[in-house]
Amino acid sequence: MWLPTLFNDKLCFLVAPISPKVQLYSYSPEDNQVNLEWEKSLTPESKALYLDCLILNGILTILVTDNKMVITKIELSANLENLSSFELSDDYKFTIWCANFMGNNPNTILLGGDDAIMGVYDFNESSQSFTSRLKDKRTHQAGITCFNFNTKDQNYFVTGSYDENLRLWDVRKLGPRSGPLDELGSGGGVWRAKHHYDSQLIACACMHYKYQVVEVVDFSTLKKISEFGDEKSLCYGIDWKKESDPKLTISSCSFYDNLVNLWEIKQ
Fold first, then answer.
1. Segments in 78-209 forming alpha helices (H)
2. pTM for the whole thing?
């Protein structure tokens, strides 16, 4: 995943390879060079499942979940000094598919996994542990696969799920009896969802039913505007071209055929 801003004056991205580690690379568009800047080993014999990060006051904070049900939080300074790192292995009985910082707050996270429970947790620095603040057990009917926050307003985020629905949420309205602002059926499990950097569009990889583009209307309603691709290949990853792009270019990757494709979305 691309870092949201420059880090140490470099364009950087994070990678979770098949080996149990997380890596930070820099990319130089001038000479098209990629360099490994930093890496850290994770739980032995594990595989990273999900990455999130944020940059505040020059510090890069990374959040990783793995298939051993371990959550790793890492703080990295601009000179690549490891400021802090800890692993949380609670009594989880189900795979944790996704973990995201709550907007720009490095001390509050969202967790989702195979148990279909969306949890909000606060990080306790003194005990280096997460404390549960809220759990939504009613909304998702199958495992939660992804979170993604609106790039224009961090009060809003979406969840993807194996139950084949994309859901829109407002952080300020989360509560034991609250629910999503809207939900939209996709026809396939929403494995990944990604907000556009400069509009209210969301690109979705919907596993057994194609790639889709959804519009957030007035921060309250989800509207599908496009679908494309071949569902036979299992639609697995998706992202927008980051720089200014009037053509709305999307990159995607599929599972069975190992393909990376570029798509131009016509408005």
1. none
2. 0.89
Distance CA 130, CA 197 (A): 30
DSSP notation for 93-115: -S-EEEEEEETTEEEEEEEEETT
Domain segments of the chain as ranges? 48-264
- Other Cβ atoms less than 10 A from the Cβ of 231: the count is 16
**Residue-wise over 10-37: b if at least 16 C-beta within 10 A, else e?**
eebbbebeeebebbbbbeeeeeeeeeee
- Phi, then psi, of 237 in degrees rounded to 5: -140, 150
Span 56-65, pLDDT tens digits: 999 999 999 8
Which CATH number fits the domain 48-264, given the four candidates 1.10.3720.10, 3.40.630.10, 3.20.20.150, 2.130.10.10?
2.130.10.10
Residue 265 backbone dihedrals phi, psi, to 5 degrees: -90, 120
